[in-house]
Amino acid sequence: MDTKRTKTRSTPGDWLKKQLVPRAYDRHILFEEIFARVAKIFRLDDLLRYLAQTMMDRLDLSSLTILVKHGSVFEVMRTAGNVNVSGVPFPVNSSAISHLRRNARPTILDKGRTDPWRMLATKDEVHALDRLHAQMLLPFVGRTGLVGFAALAQRGNRGFSLHDLYLFRELGRHVGLALEAAMTLEDLSRESAHRASANRELELAREVQERMFPQRIPAIPGATIAGRCVSAQAVGGDYYDIFLTVDGDICFALGDVSGKGISSALLMATLRASLRTLILDNDLSPTQLVFKLNRLIHEASAENRFATFAVFFYKPRSRSLTYVNAGHNPPLLLRGKEVIRLESGGPVLGLFPDCTYEQETIQIEPGDLLLVYSDGVTESINPAGDEWCEEGLIAAMRHRRKGATAVVEDVFKSLQVFAAGTPQPDDITLLAFEADGIGKRSQGALEVGQPLPIDLPEEIFLALE
Questions:
Q1: In angstroms, rounded to a whole number, what is the distance separating the alpha carbons of residues 383 and 381?
Q2: pTM for this one?
Q3: 3-state SS string for 317-365
Q4: CATH of domain 204-464
Q5: How far apart are CA 207 and CA 272, in angstroms?
Q6: Pairing of strands 307-315, 320-326
Q7: What is its EC number (predicted)?
Q8: Could you tell me the CA-to-CA distances from 30 to 16, 56, 169, 316 in Å, in that order?
Q9: Dist. CA 64–CA 79, nearest whole Å
């Protein structure tokens, strides 16, 4: 039986397949290239520049506007083509943004259609959408939600096929992830730069604060004195001072400002400056001085800020020590086996404008050791969470070397052994004053450490010999 070969006739559908399938394939490959490229761009400016150039040139667009979320609005970051919409923000609670966030897919803009979200839009929002001259809103969706969107139009106002909508949806997802990563990196870079700047400022503040502590210690006939402060942060609120007064007394003080950080350091600087200024008025008694100091601190600080404070005036010739304790931990006077707590004074500085204070004068005996300290010393903790307490401080005072500098070193060493590397929550400050035997004299120039360069009367020098 003879068979006849039948000739296949082409149809219009076959021609369309030959023409359209390769184009769809090529367009798919193009989008895949864009997907891969945006995943490798980590700088926000570079990413936006690439998107604007590539989408305009290779996707045959006539206009493009890219908006990115900044705080509570979506702002224009890039425009291309025949559009000029700089300064057109979309609030996060606007109807268009709410629709893109819920829908998370390309939205076709057709004035002939009555979409619910357009009906809910305000006049300003409708006007802003019209200025975009867009056929489509393409949401950029990241892991955290909507991070931006693009308003775009094709050349010749051609429509978008279902395949186009699929590809653009995938593009929105890839760009959303890339935008999210780039914005996070930019935020981290900005935060890092800000932190570096803040660290430089803190370092400068620390250097300034260190200069506020005594740089040179005045020599004291028959006694030694030394201090040390270790801040829990870059700057702190603890303060100590040692200097020679106008009438030849040795003034030393220790204060502890409430709180930590820059605010405490500023109040500490105010306390130091106020004390040294008031000392120039040698007609003030210690109680009068602390009374005025309290007023100044009250005026310079917030309602919840205060400072504990203890100030001492030592007369080398008479070996008498007068002090006022303004709410500070009682300084410890070790006299042989006896421990005397110096508590006379009044309330802390700064809480109330008018406070009364008492002063006390004691006679210093040979071998007396006075230790003034901030609460960071006795509240230091070990790995178990136990505090060093006053007992630990007194034990360290009993087992120390002679001389105020050695006392401070030995107490700090004992504290470090107890803490065993545990970070301490508060500033730690010590001020040690130790009396030698009668007739002994410390080495050094008497006049250093004065609050201001002044000439002392000759009889003061004779009295201090």
A1: 7
A2: 0.59
A3: CCCEEEEEEEECCCCEEEECCEEEECCCEECCECCCCCCCCCCEEEECC
A4: 3.60.40.10
A5: 16
A6: antiparallel
A7: 3.1.3.3
A8: 21, 13, 14, 91
A9: 6
**Hey, which residues does 244 pair with through a beta bridge?**
250
- For residue 447, count other CB atoms closer than 10 A to its CB: 16
The three-class DSSP label of residue 453 is coil
Token readout for 110 is: 């057709």
Distance (Å, rounded) from C-alpha 299 to C-alpha 288?
Answer: 17
Q: How many other C-beta atoms can be found within 10 angstroms of the C-beta atom of residue 26?
A: 10
Rounded to 5 degrees, φ, ψ at 4 are -105, 130
Q: What is the pLDDT of residues 189-241, one digit of tens each?
A: 888 888 877 777 667 666 766 777 888 899 999 999 999 998 877 677 788 99
As given in the structure block, the two tokens for residue 67 are 């908006």
CATH class of the domain comprising 14-187: alpha beta
* Residue 251 tokens, joined: 């003034």
CB-CB contact of 324 with 357 (8 Å) = yes
pLDDT mean over 353-378: 95
Helix (H) or strand (E) holding 77: strand 73-81
pLDDT tens profile 302-348 = 888 899 999 999 999 999 999 999 999 999 999 999 999 999 999 99
**Residue 146 burial by CB count (10 A; 0-12/13-18/19+): exposed, middle or buried?**
buried
Q: Is 183 helix (H, G, I), strand (E, B) or coil?
A: helix
Helix axes 162-212, 12-38, angle to 10 degrees: 10
Name the residue ranges covered by the structural domains of the chain: 14-187, 204-464
Are the C-beta atoms of residues 307 and 257 closer than 8 Å to each other?
yes
Tell me the HSE value of 160 on the side-chain side, using a 13 A CA sphere. Answer: 24
Same fold, 14-187 and 204-464: no
Per residue, the 3-state secondary structure of 23-61, as one string, reads HHHHHHHHHHHHHHHHCCCCCHHHHHHHHHHHHHHHCCE
Asked if residues 187 and 46 have their Cβ atoms less than 8 Å apart, the reply is no
CA distance 46 to 49: 5
- Going by C-alpha positions, the residue among 340, 313, 316 that lies closest to residue 324 is 313
Give the count of alpha carbons within 13 A of 428, CB side only.
20
Do 251 and 323 touch, CB atoms closer than 8 A?
A: no
